[in-house]
Amino acid sequence: MGVSSTTPHLLRAARGEIVDRPPVWMMRQAGRYMKAYRDLREKYPSFRDRSEIPEVAIEVSLQPWRAFQPDGVILFSDIVTPLPGLGIDMDIAEGKGPIIHAPIRTQAQIDALRPLEPEAALPFIKTILQALRQEVGNKSTVLGFVGAPWTLAAYAVEGKGSKTYSIIKNMAFTQPDVLHQLLAKLADAIAVYTRYQIDSGAQVVQMFDSWAGYLSPQDYDTFALPYQKRVFQQVKATHPDTPLILLVSGSAGVLERMAQSGADIVTVDWTVDMADARARLGKHIKVQGNLDPGVLYGSKEFIRDRIIDTVRKAGNWGHILNLGHGVHPDTPEENVAFFFETAKQLHAVV
């Protein structure tokens, strides 16, 4: 047996090998559209319990694996999970997202932050990732899950999700020195956290800069991109062979900038045609995406046509098939199953 036959499909594509079909997984593939997840949520109503009690998080992470056999199995987690390890107390409200109890607004609060020590603060992450690797073996690729500095700063400063990001933008434009200190501390913590996930079994890591798309391009260059780079450079210094994925929600205006981050793979959302994204990113950057999650409401024929269109436009190298964002909670489970079945039969079609 050669190396390629024992290396998981997604990992091979992420490293730039030519594969017979694009690997496929789905953001938010563990979640509310699955009856198995809704049943578990009744037993464990707290998101933190579901993502931090190892046996529960392992079960949730593996629900889509057992149902659909995706090429990627991602750690069930949240981007704010490491924040308590820095001294930022938080909770995750059902249906509303993270809540930061004492938002970071002052220099004194930033000075009080401590370096992340994952083994002490987040030991459950290692337990979960090791179990996932053991469970899927070489049949799938285990993905890690981290937030990016700008997005974590946005939560930490705003105190919760926002439509306008007025509080952190106020800080960015009136006290940039203060915000840069926070971003630097977050970047260093995320680099440590990413390396910990890789050491614990993650074979690829996706960084979510969910709110960086709310920045103008010039502010993206100031407050998001340098800190994405800071994370990726630190991780590549110790783990050069682990592919890293960058996602920015609403990224159409900053695609080219994402290619400068040091990420190996850029997630493309559905507001950009995949052929255009390929042209804009250049031939060395791999891509992930980019079906509109709403396509999964359509007929099987419609879903199949859209998958084939995306895959043809992406070309036969360096493409991981995915949605442009997470699967919607009210998506019919049988349509998710059809998405995966179709994707896995693509080598016979495209």
> In percent, how helical is the residue content?
40-55%
The rough form would be described as globular
The tally of beta strands, per DSSP, is 9
Question: What distance lies between the first and last C-alpha atoms, to the nearest angstrom?
Answer: 27 Å
State Rg: 19 Å
**What is the averaged pLDDT score?**
96
Note the total helix count: 16
Largest sheet: 7 strands, parallel
Descriptive keywords:
single chain; 350 residues; alpha/beta; seven-stranded parallel β-sheet; two-stranded antiparallel ribbon; 16 helices
Sequence-ordered SSE layout with sheet pairings:
Blueprint: H1 3-6, H2 9-14, H3 35-43, H4 47-52, H5 54-68, E1 72-74, E2 90-93, E3 97-100, H6 107-112, H7 118-121, H8 123-136, E4 141-147, H9 149-158, H10 166-174, H11 176-200, E5 204-209, H12 217-238, E6 244-248, H13 255-258, E7 265-268, H14 274-281, E8 286-291, H15 300-314, E9 319-323, H16 333-344
Parallel strand pairs: 1-4, 4-5, 5-6, 6-7, 7-8, 8-9
Antiparallel strand pairs: 2-3
Any overview of this molecule?
By secondary structure, this protein is of the alpha/beta class. The protein has 16 helices and 9 strands. The chain has helices at 3-6, 9-14, 35-43, 47-52, 54-68, 107-112, 118-121, 123-136, 149-158, 166-174, 176-200, 217-238, 255-258, 274-281, 300-314, 333-344, and strands at residues 72-74, 90-93, 97-100, 141-147, 204-209, 244-248, 265-268, 286-291, 319-323. It has a 7-stranded parallel sheet with strand order 1-4-5-6-7-8-9. A two-stranded antiparallel sheet has the order 2-3. Helix 12 links the parallel strand 5 and strand 6. Helix 5 (54-68) runs parallel beside helix 8 and helix 15 (300-314) packs across helix 16 (333-344). The model has no long low-confidence stretch (mean pLDDT 96).
